[in-house]
Amino acid sequence: MTETHTRAPSWPGYREVHRVTTLLRRESVGGMLLVVAAIIAIIWANSPASDAYFALRDFRFGYEPWHLELSVGSWAADGLLAVFFFMVGLELKREIVVGSLRRFQTAIVPVTAAFAGVAVPALIYVAIVHTQPSLLAGWAIPTATDIAFAVAVLALVGSHLPGPLRIFLLTLAVVDDLIAIAIIAIFYTSDISLVPLAVFAVLVVVYGVIAHRARAWFSRHAWGAWVVLLPIGFAAWAFLHASGVHATIAGVALAFTIPVAASKRKPEHHGMDLAEQFEHRFRPLSSGIAVPIFAFFAAGVAVGGGEGIARALMDPVTIGVVSGLVLGKPLGILLGVRVLTLVTKVRLDPALKWIDLAGVGLLAGIGFTVSLLIAELSFPDGSPHTDDAKIAIMAASLLASVLASAVLLVRNRRYKQLALAEEVDADGDDIPDVYQQPHPEGR
Fold first, then answer.
1. What angle do the packed helices 147-157 and 27-45 form, to 10 degrees?
2. What is the distance in angstroms between the CA of the first residue and the CA of the last residue of the chain?
């Protein structure tokens, strides 16, 4: 991805801003910010100053006639998280148009793994809570994979793991997010208002037409998206929110209108991938601001001391979520891929081993961002099961990351040894034969 700049801007502080945004584009940094924000929230929510945390989270502001008088926590979940879903939408579209999802043979394995990795955790959760029908609404909580968190862990522990393994995880997580988006739109939406929904659809079309027609201008002027597209995007988000559909879906819908491939009709657009440019520009906003702030307001749960922890551990919701994420995710992924290879002619990439997929399956058990969102949508306001589900998500994500790191660190060490051995062999090939072969007389 290349942006057309003749020279770097000279305004004061540019170097510092550029350094920070470059840092925020690193997967490991985004994952660390997510974790730090959640830890701060948990500590604050269980400290003597917890009232201040909940007062901040529940403080309401906005324009009520437009149904936009929301709490700070709701603005984070419905508004800021739409930025995250916009980034997910850009990744999805690029994968479908020019990436690994474009080719059936490449896509079918991680896509199958993603669907099985959603189905098995949901079934495990339902099997555990089925005796209490009121808890069945949380069936989708353990189905999601946090792409930012999971990829950050992989980046930290997998410096020598094969490239196809990272592509497998990325594709699986992106498809997983798509399934989660569909689940939210279908199962966690009620009382749809058709007029706001129709206005939203019109605004999305307008947004897409402008993005396509002015792609060259948006490519040359980074500020153009903020001035032209952002107001239209915010209006579309507001109308979708008013319609009753969860407003984060607006991020995906708008992202899918951004052009990916270069225009074939206009030569001046050659090599101009606006989706890739937007992903590069807005990544710091998503990973450095939107997702950490959402995590900060979503993860703050008053545990209630030892009694609260004991109660949470006995809650079927907690058991179902932890079991679904830590056991169901790797089991579903491995089972899905295994069945696929048994009943079809599709085979794993030769660079991948089953133990590698097991490590990635454990890594997919990091639910966090989307799981926290679904937990808030699953139960009525004020339900203790919401807090128990959040505790379970954080505990399961921590456990999954530890188990996955244990497996992948061992595999990473193995691949590192193989790489060093290959380097030694390559160096040996450069040595003249007279030095490699034993002397015919043994001297």
1. 120
2. 59
Residue 262: its pLDDT value, please?
53
CA 60 distance to own-chain centroid = 28
User: To the nearest whole number, what is the mean pLDDT of the chain?
Assistant: 82
Is pTM, for the whole model, over 0.85? no
Mapping DSSP onto H, E and C, the string for 214-242 reads: CHHHHHHCCCHHHHHHHHHHHHHHHHHHH
Distances (CA, A) of 290 to 79, 228, 285, 381: 9, 21, 6, 23
How many Å apart are CA 111 and CA 118, to the nearest integer? 11
Could you give the count of Cα atoms lying within 13 Å of 169 in the half-sphere of its Cβ? 32
- Where residue 197 falls (left for φ over 0; alpha for ψ -120 to 50; beta otherwise) is alpha
Cβ-Cβ contacts under 8 Å for 164 (sequence gap 6 or more): 349, 351, 352
Q: How crowded is residue 47: how many other Cβ atoms within 10 Å of its Cβ?
A: 12
pLDDT tens track for 124-140: 999 999 999 989 999 99
* Per-residue CA distances from 64 to 58, 68, 243 (Å): 16, 5, 14
Q: What is the pLDDT of residue 302?
A: 78
Angle at 85 between CA 81 and CA 89, to 5 degrees: 170
DSSP state of 11: S
Rounded Cα distance between 25 and 17, Å, is: 12
Phi and psi, residue 332, nearest 5°? -65, -45
DSSP 3-state of 71: strand
Which tokens sit at 259?
């052009």
* Structural tokens at position 436: 């490699």
List, as own/partner pairs, every contact residues 306-309 make where C-beta atoms lie below 8 angstroms and the sequence separation is at least 24, other chains included: 309/391
Helix-helix angle 147-157:163-187, to 10 degrees: 170
The CA distance from 104 to 111, in Å, is 10
The DSSP code for 264 is S
The DSSP output letter for 315 is: S
H or E segment at 60?
A: strand 60-61
The values of phi and psi at residue 431, to 5°, are -80, 135
- Cα–Cα distance between 333 and 120 in angstroms, integer? 9
Residue with tokens 């945390």: 53
The Cα–Cα gap between 169 and 166 comes to: 5
CA distance 418 to 401: 25
